[in-house]
Amino acid sequence: MKTLMLGNEAVARGLYEAGCSFVSSYPGTPSTEITECAAKYEELYAEWAPNEKVALEAAFGASLAGKRSFCAMKHVGLNVAADPLFTISYTGVNAGLIIGVADDAGMHSSQNEQDSRHYAQAAKIPMLEPSDSAEALSFAKLAYEISERFDTAVLIKMCTRVSHSQSVVETSERVLPEQKKYEKNPGKYIMMPGNAKKRHPEIEERTKALTAWAETAEINRIEEGSDKSCGIITSSTCYQYVKEACGDTYPVLKLGMIWPMPEQKIRDFAASVDKLVVVEELDGFIETHCKNLGLSVSGKDMFSNIGELSQNLVKEKLGEAVQAGPSLDESIPARPPVMCAGCPHRSIFYVLKKMKLTVLGDIGCYTLGAVPPLGAIDSTVCMGASVSGLHGFVKASDEEWAGGTVAVIGDSTFIHSGVTGLINIAYNESNATVIILDNSITGMTGHQQNPTTGYNLKGDPCTKIDLESLCHAVGIRRVRVVDPYDMETCQEAIKEELSAKEPSVIISRRPCALLKYVKHPGPICSDPEKCKGCKACMNIGCPAISMENGKAKIDDTLCVGCGVCKQLCKFDALG
Prior knowledge:
Helices cover 35% and strands 16% of the residues. The chain is built from 20 helices and 20 strands.
């Protein structure tokens, strides 16, 4: 049956059709929907893991037991999973194991741009790179064949444009392979130095075998063109840009396996054209491979290694005519991202800014506390870095400065990698205060459950991690819970914990305002007669508040009635 599917949805369908039985992931845009869609198939066990390292290790365990398995993450999540990734390359697999990674060129929802192709080369693990939903489905099925044939995990690299665009796929029935038996094999699976030394030569031989396979693999195909003055090597979404920009004008070598790449096929293609051009996003990965083969090639001298490419950019660089699109008569006002109306994080950041504290931030919705008018965050690095960084900051600072510094981290991020930083604080006794912003969900990636919510991926009740007990268990004696909508109490709590001579944790607990089960009192009203136009209410950056004719105006379609703005108004104009 033919149907439209998102790229991520198509990967999940490919897993289903290939007989995958186990899926473990950590949500991260643009990879999240792969696991969410996989969970809809009753035949697949699917879960959210606390972090990407755990997810990959769990998927490897399922492979070891004899079931085809999968885990997904975004590009920065692959950094977290790198430890098991490199060793799993040595152990190989039992049943097929696929690792999905989604890059985010252009940083639509990420803290950096990262080219995950380097991981495939460094870990000596094959990587497939689909360019549309149909390939996303078929490559997932092919990846299991490669995995089991060559005794290796296989990376499937998605990107924002392929993950979140729709194209036609043709579905088929699920085929469940016979479960492989687990057999003890210490030399293969116990990676102590003596065994690992024996495995390494086998990995190098595997790479040679995969390179030979890549020479004739159908997913690495040459598409003929009428003008051989230029030949283009490309992959992924850049292939779509090239075809839209040039059609069948130039010959194209479309690589579906991006590592290891063929050698003779590329040499033969280069010999058939006058000039060789590589069109790829971010780093010159294919270009470097071509240069290592001794070929003369253009790539990053034409296309930037920063941000996304586009059809028009490809046209321009290849000397094709670029048609200008229609222009707008009026400029569109900027719409910077802001916290939602009623977001429980907003008031905490207002208090922190008011107190003029140094705030080490983390990854999540609360990163928006860095933008005006709140502007309350001093640093954001990676998952969990706020807590670990706070420890170092406090240890390296004089007492006065250290006493004015806190870390903020969400509940899901705290479980992901913040708890180990808190253990470090307790163990090495830094006088640090950590604020856990517990909104009872994994917010920024679209409301996924996590170990603190009491529900699993499928929405079934499960064990709920008690944050207070966890903080006590790792050695923090001072743990308190506050309601972020009560700003005065929050400020007093922060003052008290900063003045304490031992580590402390403040849990700011209020569920995300967008959760369907959260009941709100309803919008508040503004009284233009009482309003003095002081704009104090505007300092919290709530999208439900604006100024009209010099008076505060509440948008009752956005306001949830949290009452934070009322605490700022000295004239009782909001009620």
